[in-house]
Design goal:
Blueprint: H1 3-6, E1 19-20, H2 23-27, H3 33-46, H4 48-51, E2 52-54, H5 59-72, H6 79-85, H7 89-99, E3 103-109, E4 115-121, H8 130-133, H9 138-142, H10 148-162, E5 169-177, E6 203-213, E7 220-230, H11 231-234, H12 238-250, H13 253-258, H14 265-273
Antiparallel strand pairs: 1-5, 2-4, 3-4, 3-7, 5-6, 6-7
Helix pairs in contact: 3-7, 5-7, 6-7, 12-14
């Protein structure tokens, strides 16, 4: 993923931008696999109901997602043993959540051409809770973001409905955070921005997202991989710094408030706009 491609030098807006992705590359283990999976397991042990959810109608989608993962060989070596030990759909859901580095959500198509959240494991949420979204359609999920559903709601459902099975589509979402923690569940007490927060304590938080249609259920597997970059590192790429600064400058205040950026964006913009010495 080339960050500069996702931060063009243009005003902030909501847009439907997807690129063809590679499902095997997206889910394959990285060099940080053991560390990430260990943290995922820790959160499941601490409070599984806060990080996973499964409705009865989500079971067929879960089974199909596992079959797809096995067929594409996008599960780590220990997967056979962990999945074999699972005695219930709930345990299968947790097992899959422990095996993959990215979070995942399963969306079920409805008769009215909307998609509803029916299962998932989200250990690294960006200030949201999966149990609060379970059973709800996408317009409810996106409804908390000021202006998003009005601009893209119909396009999102249309895009999900028209996807061809097996073809992965990738997009990116971003925000800034005062903490490098992967797990930013709203119940956790993590640092928040203040007007005095220095650039060294500001992080660019990326959601590298992928979507793929499941052929049998026509449901959608939605993956979310969190990437965190210190702002001082982002500054080193002039194209990314320029695009991010412009997006922050032109972001509508209700959106900035929702993202909890109001207190820090002036500092971030000033830092990103500053010319580095040669």
């Amino acid at each position: 993923m080339n960050l500069a491609d996702w931060f063009p030098d243009e005003d902030h807006r909501f847009y439907m931008r997807f690129e063809l992705g590679n499902l095997a590359d997206y889910f394959k283990p990285t060099e940080s696999h053991d560390k990430i999976v260990a943290e995922r397991r820790r959160w499941f042990v601490t409070n599984p109901a806060a990080y996973a959810a499964l409705l009865p109608e989500g079971v067929p989608l879960l089974d199909e997602a596992i079959t797809l993962a096995q067929g594409l060989q996008i599960l780590p070596a220990e997967s056979d043993g962990l999945l074999a030990k699972a005695k219930s759909p709930w345990e299968k859901c947790l097992a899959l959540g422990e095996l993959w580095e990215p979070d995942f959500v399963l969306l079920k198509p409805e008769a009215d051409e909307t998609f509803r959240v029916v299962a998932g494991c989200v250990c690294f949420p960006s200030s949201w809770s999966l149990p609060e979204k379970i059973g709800h359609p996408m317009e409810f999920v996106h409804g908390v973001v000021p202006g998003l559903h009005a601009v893209l709601g119909k396009q999102i459902n249309s895009m999900l409905g028209k996807m061809k099975p097996g073809i992965a589509w990738q997009r990116m979402n971003w925000s800034l955070s005062a903490s490098p923690e992967l797990n930013q569940h709203p119940e956790r007490v993590l640092p928040q921005f203040a007007s005095t927060t220095p650039p060294a304590e500001i992080y660019l938080r990326l959601e590298d997202q992928t979507l793929v249609k499941l052929p049998e259920t026509q449901g959608v597997l939605f993956g979310i991989r969190i990437l965190v970059h210190p702002l001082i590192e982002v500054k080193k790429d002039p194209d990314v710094a320029r695009g991010l600064a412009r997006a922050l400058k032109t972001m509508a205040e209700p959106v900035a408030a929702y993202k909890k950026l109001s207190a820090c964006r002036a500092t971030a913009v000033q830092f990103l706009d500053r010319v580095l010495p040669l």
